[in-house]
Automatic annotation (TrEMBL):
Keywords: ATP synthesis, Cell membrane, CF(0), Hydrogen ion transport, Ion transport, Membrane, Transmembrane, Transmembrane helix, Transport. Its main location: membrane. One of its GO terms (cellular component) is plasma membrane. Key component of the proton channel; it plays a direct role in the translocation of protons across the membrane. The chain crosses the membrane at residues 39-58, 94-119, 125-144, 165-183, 189-211, 218-236, 242-262. It is a multi-pass membrane protein. This is ATP synthase subunit a.
Amino acid sequence: MSTAVVLASSGGEFTPPGAELFDFPPLFAGGPEWLTKPVLMALLGVVVTCALAWSAFAKPKLVPRGMQNVGEMGYIFVRDQVARPFLGKDAERWMPLLLSMFLLIWVWNIFAVVPIIQFPVASHIAFPAVLALSVYFLKIYLGMKHQGPVKYFTNLIPPGLPKPIYVLLVPIEYLSTFVLAPFTHAVRLFANMFAGHIILAFFSLVGYWFLIENPTLLGAPVGVLGVVMTILMTAFEMFIQFLQAFLFTMLAAMYIGSGLHADH
């Protein structure tokens, strides 16, 4: 993406959106620095997630209808595609956490295409980082509880290899498990939402600039292209929003499973 697009017809300059999209002042003058729109949207996401769960499961019927149908479809999806493949017989026990995590992240992501809100909460690294660190510490706690405080760490290393191999393998395995895994867990979600938000903002601004803000005969096709790409990228971004919620929850289930049971 170039840093600027110059309009040949009018001399005006179009500047594409950048990192300033993610800078928010406090909600009110004199308010705390941390109380910004992303924080408010994160809390709203929690409320929406709780409301969805309550409307689906508060008064379950033998023959599900309405929101209970939707809730049960979501539950079955997370159970069969996320929990059971990695947790086996422990899947049902961890379903409240995994289902809540999946719904919350999905709601946070979908805020990017909701009118007026139009901001994906997970595009601020703090939010996926908190979730990833929570899973990380839970994994270590479960590993030390179920495998023993010493054996948990030794179980990470496959036995029976030549001793010189361990000089290289042990640091790599520990670095991957205790540093890279939680880092990539958070950054994958953050980076996708960050990039997707910039792309949507860019094409939206192209359409607005060339068709409304500074319309010209030569710029009109570019503006139409911007509108078309905005529609297409919005549909694609909605798929990515769902996919990233699924992948984050799937990795969480995998990490919890590695704490409950030895990898080797």
